[in-house]
């Protein structure tokens, strides 16, 4: 029966048959054939499949010269180099000190050389004259046995220690003591023909044409029958495709959106360019409130002024600031200025957006409860660093309903964080000019064992809701939470800026999770 083998494998098989010894070393054989080691071994594996050849593995100690050893192979051992310097100068005796100075060896190497010169009985040393001197005591200096052995490395870079003779081992040990060699544990492969391999004649073998692609020509002409298809490993992992992916922060926003929708909320959006009226005044923040100041708020030149809502409503807001209006409060007791309220700015919080929704409540004759949320950009004039951004995102929401209370608020917020994977939250008293009571919210982060501040919440004060006709027992629960803080925890980023400067490595990892 004929055996079909690839061309390369046939070549290797022929070469193996030609070998005089039964076994060959894979590394040497690949060198001899001028064949890449991997190519050789894959040919052997193919022969093995047909039971024509096989290989065995052996652990060996491989010996080679280290850098210093290699330099001596070229220039001679230090003792030989020193000797040659003397011979060149035709010096038969010299003081050690002088010799050290004229040799370009460092002190350590110099004394090593001298000691081997003595061991080789090339020189003698004497202090008879008071000076430490050396004398050449020979006329001829034939190659030492060690020097002769060293030359082996001219032909072979590596020696297998266990294959060396007793004598050779002695010299390797000597070189080892002089720290001129490297020893490495290696696995070596020994290749041999099997009985079947030895008995198989070359005429029993036919060349196999293997291909990895079929062309339409091969199919129409029928020539495909002459080829064998290369097998494919369908379990192998394909290359990683680095296509465009949705940014992790956008994914997270979508997840949050799904959570609020599933809790029966509706999404609202509001303008990024806001009036001071909705950003501050409608939220009962006095016109001299520090947060309004330039260091915190980006005011705009263009458009310079915003329109205010209907006169009646503006009037009601003005009244709450000046004297409390009908909210039962005494207000801030200052003269409210319409022009300050008309100033334009980049909204500093999305509470401006939820207050706009509240303002529509009566106008639209809404049914209760009104449950809305917004996930949107806000802007503050802050110095950007690893925990601050000048542009960030808030997760905001309100519930307008009769007789709702703080427990409902805590319930909604905990439910949201729970769905995001944060089981533990804590609320603590806080202050905002527009809520009473006010709560700060922190979530527990297991990995750090710390509580992390996430944002604020509370029940809108009557001063905020009354101007829009939303009155007791109808109340408004409100919250505004940071998104990027949460993203840092979720994505384990230590620098908040990473979320937006797009470190490509992280983005790739994140999108393949
Ligand atoms: N607007 C507040 C902030 O930006 C958060 C907040 C929203 C507080 C609603 C109370 C109620 O920090």
Overview of the structural elements:
The structure is a single chain. The chain has a domain at 250-509: BirA Bifunctional Protein, domain 2 (2-Layer Sandwich). The strands form 6 sheets. It has a 7-stranded mixed beta sheet, sandwiched between helices. Strands 2-8-3-7 form a 4-stranded antiparallel beta sheet. The chain has a 3-stranded antiparallel beta sheet with strand order 4-6-5. The model has no long low-confidence stretch (mean pLDDT 93). A hairpin with a 4-residue loop joins strand 18 and strand 19 (450-460). The protein has 22 helices and 20 strands. By secondary structure, it is of the alpha+beta class. Helix 1 (7-18) packs across helix 3, helix 5 crosses helix 7 and helix 13 (248-262) packs across helix 20. The two termini are 54 Å apart. The chain binds phenylalanine. Phenylalanine binds at residues 349, 351, 432, 435, 455-458, 478-480.
Which terms would index this structure?
BirA Bifunctional Protein, domain 2; single chain; elongated; 513 residues; seven-stranded mixed sheet; 20 strands; alpha+beta; binds phenylalanine; four-stranded antiparallel sheet
Topology:
Layout lengths: L2 E3 L1 H12 L4 E3 H8 L3 H13 L3 E13 L1 H9 L2 H12 L3 E3 H7 L4 H13 L3 E4 L6 E4 L8 H6 L1 H4 L3 E2 L5 H12 L3 E13 L1 H5 L5 E3 L2 E2 L4 H6 L6 E2 L18 H15 L3 E2 L5 E3 H4 L31 H13 L14 H4 L2 E3 L4 H10 L9 E10 L11 E12 L3 H14 L5 E5 L5 E11 L4 E11 L1 H4 L8 E9 H9 L6 H4 L2 H8 L2
Helix pairs in contact: 1-3, 5-7, 13-20
Phenylalanine (PHE) binds next to strand 19 and strand 20.
